[in-house]
Model the fold of this input.
Amino acid sequence: MATIKDIAEKTGLSPTTVSRVINNHPYVDQSKRIKVQKAMQELSYVPNSSAQRLRGQKTNTVAVIISRIINPFFSHLVDAMGEAATDRGYQLLLCDSRLDAQRELEHLELLKKKQVDGVILASLQNTWKEIEPYTKFGPVITCNEYDKEAEMPMISCDQQYGGYLAVRHLIEQGHTRIAYAGGVNRIQLTYDRLQGYRQAMAEASLPVEDAFIFTGIYGLSDGIQVFDEIRGMEEPPTAIFAGGDEVAAGVIKQAKLHQWRVPEDIAVVGFDNQPLAELVEPGITTIEQPTKVMGIRAMQLMMDMIDHAGPVTYQKETLPLHLVKRGST
Amino acid sequence: MATIKDIAEKTGLSPTTVSRVINNHPYVDQSKRIKVQKAMQELSYVPNSSAQRLRGQKTNTVAVIISRIINPFFSHLVDAMGEAATDRGYQLLLCDSRLDAQRELEHLELLKKKQVDGVILASLQNTWKEIEPYTKFGPVITCNEYDKEAEMPMISCDQQYGGYLAVRHLIEQGHTRIAYAGGVNRIQLTYDRLQGYRQAMAEASLPVEDAFIFTGIYGLSDGIQVFDEIRGMEEPPTAIFAGGDEVAAGVIKQAKLHQWRVPEDIAVVGFDNQPLAELVEPGITTIEQPTKVMGIRAMQLMMDMIDHAGPVTYQKETLPLHLVKRGST
DNA sequence: CTGAAAGCGCTTACAG
DNA sequence: CTGAAAGCGCTTACAG
Done:
C-alpha cells in the first residue's frame, strides 16, 4: 500500500509538495505537479482516510439513526439523504436502533469518537434529557421525529395536523364511530397523531370511545389483530385511522377475509403513502409525507451546520402534509 | 474533547497505562485501573476512532454495495448483514451504486483509502476485469450477484434453477405460451434466470417466441408497460414469469384494470417473495430467496476473512431457492 | 514555489 | 506492573 512517502521518494520531492498536489493547492510547479500525479497513478496511490481524518479533525460523514431500514418509510428517507450527502461530498453512516434506546445512545457515541461530524435522528427512542449531553460534541438534529422539549433543530411534519386531516376526512364521509390504531404514545410523533384524531372528533362533537383506541400498533400483523378485535365488538367502528399503511393493509386484508367490504363495512385511512398503498385492493387512502424533501432538507441543514461550524440558530422547520384519497374510504 | 493525554495528566499516569486500561490489558495495577476508569468517566472520554484506525490499520467496517436501498430485497439483505456485523463488533457502511458502474468503482476505492476492511458486492455493475485490481487491497466478495469468470468468494442462489422452477410450474399448470420479463442480460444473475426459462421450455419441447422476451424490466411501471404490450398482441401469452414481485404486481394491476382475470386470462409468477406478494390480490406466486441467510452468511464470511487475514480459499456457496404458490397461478 | 518540523491521538515493542 | 519513544499517514504553519 503506497503512502505519501513512497510518492515523495519516487519523485524526489518532499511529502509536503505531494500533499499539495493531492489537495490541489495552487503554487506548485506545473511540471512537478504532473510528475506527482503520474507517480500516484503508477503506484495506484489513494490517501489514507484515517490519517486525513485524524489530521483534519473532520470525517465528512454524518450518522443517520433510524429504527429499522426494512421500513419503507426509512429506506426512502435514507435514500434521499444519501443523495443529498453525495452531492456535497459527504458520506452517510446508517445506524439502526431497532427501537432500542440503548442502541440509539451507542450510535450517538460516534460523535464523541469523532467517527462522524454530526448525527441526524430520524427515530427517537430517548428523551431530550438523554440526548442533550451529546450535543456538545457536534451537531445533532432531528428529522421526522421531534420532541417538544428538545432544543435542537428539527425538520418534521405536523403530525397532529396529519391525524386531523385523516379523521376529518372520515367524518366528512359520514362516519361517527371511528377507531384509531397507532404506535406507542411515549413517542411524541405518535402522540400528536392521536391528538389530531381527538381534535377532529371534538370539532364534530363526536365522542371518543376508549375501546376504539389501539396503541403499540406497527406492522401488518398488528393490523390483522386490530381487525380481529374490532370484529368481536358489539358495536364496532365503521372506520379506522391507522398510523401506517402497513397497518391499514393488515386491516383490509383481514376484513376481506371475513367478508367485510371496504369501505362500505369499514373504511380505512393509512399513513405515509407507501408504494403498497396503491397496490392493495382497494387502494389505501392515506396521508402523504414529503419524505424526499424532508430527507434532503435535513441533510442539507446538517452539512451547513458542519461546514459553517458556527453556533447554528436553533430552528424548527415544519413541512406540509396532505391527504391522498383512494378506494379504502 | 478529552484525549488520552488528558486522562494521563489527570491521573498522573502515562498514556501507555491509560491505553492499557482502555484496551483491557492484563497486568495493570487494580487501583490504577480504577483511577483511570474514573477519570475517563468524568471527562466523558472516548477514544478517537480515526487515531485507533490509523494506528491499528483496521477499521472494523465493511462496505456493502447495493444498487438502491429502496428496493425491499436490498433493505432486507442489508438488515440481516447489519445484524450479523453488530454481533461481532463490526460496522456496515452502506454504498449504493444506483446501477452506475462508475459509482460502484468509486465505492471500491474505500478499500484503497483504508476506510473499510472489506467489501461485499451485493450488486455488480462491473465485470471481473474491473473488479479484480481492487482485490489486492483487501477482501472482496459477492453476495447475491455473481460472475462466472470472477475468482472471489461468492454467496448466491442458483438463479437459473429459480427461473426453471418458475417456468416449470407454469407449464405444469398447463401453459404453453409463456412470456419472460426480467432485467438486463449483461448481468449474470438476470441472464441465468432467462436460461432457466429456456431450460424449462426446452424440457417441455415448447418454442420460445422472441416477442415474449422482455428485458430491462425492473419496477412496477415496467410491469404495467409489459402488460400493455401483451394486451396488444395478436396471440398473447397466457402466463408470464416476471423477474421481480414489483414487476409482477404491475402486470397484475394493469391486467385487472383491463378486466383480464388473474390467473385465468394471464397467470403471473414473481421473484423474491417480498411482503407485497401476499398483499396484492390475488397473492403472487413467487420464487423465494433466502435473503436473510444469504446476508448473514456473506457478512460472516467477510468477517472471517478479515479476522484471519490469511489468503482465503476461493469458494462459491449456493443457497437453495423455492417456489411459493399463491393465487396468481 | 518548496521543504523540515511538528503534531493530530493512539498503541506497541522495548527496556526496566 | 509501568513508562519513554517511535511511528501509523497525513497536513499545516513557518521559514526560506
Summary: Residues 13-17, 20, 27-29, 32, 51, 53-57, 114 of chain B lie near DNA strand D (CB under 10 Å from a C1'). The CA atoms of residues 1 and 287 of chain B lie 53 Å apart. Chain B touches chain A at residues 1, 44, 46-51, 53-54, 59, 68-70, 72, 75-76, 78-79, 82, 91-94, 96, 109-110, 112-115, 133, 137, 220, 246, 249, 253, 256, 275-276, 279-281 (CB under 8 Å).
